[in-house]
């Protein structure tokens, strides 16, 4: 029995020691967390404060009220929440700004009412810096708005392609084949833009995805060269469609439909006193079957001669030569990145 009593007494002593050190531990934990902790009385005067933001001292808070410290805009946010916590006893949470090192910073303030002996009341508050979270939220909103804008533009392009393809297709199968090909062209362009975080698309990548991959074995007879340039997203999508149309036509009717025909693609940036800096793409077919201008203007031709140049603020010329099609597309340097 004596041994048990001694053990119990020792146990009580063992538990008492950590309890005495707890306030100091709490202060250290608050500093590690980065939270600003403080106590206000029922008149909302600061009693003590721990871990104030950079550039502030406890003496700038203790004995003062929020009206003495913060702007009227901040006071109008935090004081009503604190009074509500005092009256209702319910924890309140608000967000506010205060200058830190000369720059406004966002904080999340959590307010809890506490009761003191003899009926005195007060508040225990914790303010957590949420500047990084606010910045992330802002970037997310910008990205969502940009995504909505791009989605609307893409849907408009797809709707236009679908309508014009339907108008110039005589059968459902013909429509499906043409529309699917154009849709895949847009998809490949979007893959490039996504890989580049929508900054733009390199001309060489557009050639690779819209011409070489589509041409298959005939890609050996496609020769290309040009400056190392990248187009803005909108220009990249429309140039991709133009390259797809030219490749599809070359495979079906033009230089790539036989065994000996070749295609030369070149692009360059040039300057002139009259037009300023311009970017030009040239498509030349050689040694292909004899080409006769079509009697009707299908959507592919409308796209090459009207839709694409209008979309890139440029000009286009489509010619039917004895050896195959030649096509030039000129646009201002502003369509490049």
Architecture blueprint of SSEs:
Layout: H1 2-33, E1 36-41, E2 46-50, H2 66-69, H3 72-88, E3 92-100, E4 103-115, E5 121-129, H4 131-167, H5 172-195, E6 201-202, H6 203-215, E7 222-226, E8 230-231, H7 233-252, E9 262-272, E10 276-286, H8 299-311, E11 315-321, E12 324-332
Parallel strand pairs: 7-9
Antiparallel strand pairs: 1-2, 1-5, 3-4, 4-5, 6-8, 9-10, 10-12, 11-12
Helix pairs in contact: 4-5, 5-6, 5-7, 6-7, 7-8
Provide a descriptive summary of the structure in words.
The chain is an alpha+beta fold and 337 residues long. The chain folds into 2 domains: 34-129, 2-Layer Sandwich (Beta-Lactamase); 177-335, Histidine kinase-like ATPase, C-terminal domain (Heat Shock Protein 90, 2-Layer Sandwich). It contains 8 helices and 12 strands. It has a 5-stranded antiparallel sheet with strand order 2-1-5-4-3, with helices on both faces. It has a 5-stranded mixed sheet with strand order 7-9-10-12-11, with helices on one face. It has a two-stranded antiparallel ribbon with strand order 6-8. Strand 1 (36-41) and strand 2 (46-50) form a beta hairpin. Helix 4 (131-167) runs antiparallel to helix 5 and helix 6 (203-215) runs parallel beside helix 7. The longest helix is centred in the middle third of the chain and has 37 residues, at 131-167. It starts with a helix and ends in a 5-residue tail after the last strand.
């Amino acid at each position: 029995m004596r041994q048990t009593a001694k053990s119990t007494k020792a146990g009580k002593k063992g538990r008492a020691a950590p309890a005495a050190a707890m306030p100091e531990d709490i202060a250290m934990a608050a500093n590690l967390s980065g939270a600003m902790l403080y106590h206000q009385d029922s008149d909302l005067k600061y009693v003590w404060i721990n871990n104030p933001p950079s550039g502030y001292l406890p003496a700038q808070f203790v004995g003062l009220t929020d009206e003495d410290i913060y702007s009227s805009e901040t006071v109008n946010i935090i004081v009503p929440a604190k009074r509500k916590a005092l009256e209702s006893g319910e924890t309140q949470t608000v967000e506010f700004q205060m200058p830190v090192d000369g720059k406004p910073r966002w904080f999340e303030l959590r307010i809890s009412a506490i009761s003191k002996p003899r009926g005195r009341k007060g508040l225990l508050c914790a303010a957590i810096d949420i500047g990084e979270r606010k910045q992330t939220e802002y970037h997310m909103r910008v990205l969502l708005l940009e995504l909505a804008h791009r989605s609307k533009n893409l849907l408009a392009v797809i709707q236009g392609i679908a309508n014009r393809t339907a108008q110039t297709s005589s059968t459902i199968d013909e429509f499906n084949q043409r529309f699917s090909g154009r849709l895949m062209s847009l998809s490949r362009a979007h893959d490039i833009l996504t890989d580049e975080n929508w900054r733009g698309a390199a001309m060489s990548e557009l050639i690779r995805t819209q011409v070489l991959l589509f041409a298959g074995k005939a890609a050996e007879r496609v020769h290309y060269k040009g400056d190392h340039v990248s187009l803005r997203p909108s220009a990249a999508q429309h140039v991709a469609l133009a390259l797809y149309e030219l490749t599809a036509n070359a495979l079906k009717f033009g230089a790539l439909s036989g065994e000996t025909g070749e295609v030369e693609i070149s692009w360059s940036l040039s300057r002139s006193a009259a037009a300023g800096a311009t970017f030009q793409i040239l498509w030349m077919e050689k040694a292909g079957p004899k080409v006769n201008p079509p009697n009707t203007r299908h959507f592919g031709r409308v796209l090459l001669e009207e839709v694409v140049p209008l979309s890139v603020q440029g000009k286009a010329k489509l010619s039917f030569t004895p050896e195959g099609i030649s096509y030039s597309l000129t646009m201002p340097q502003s369509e490049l990145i």
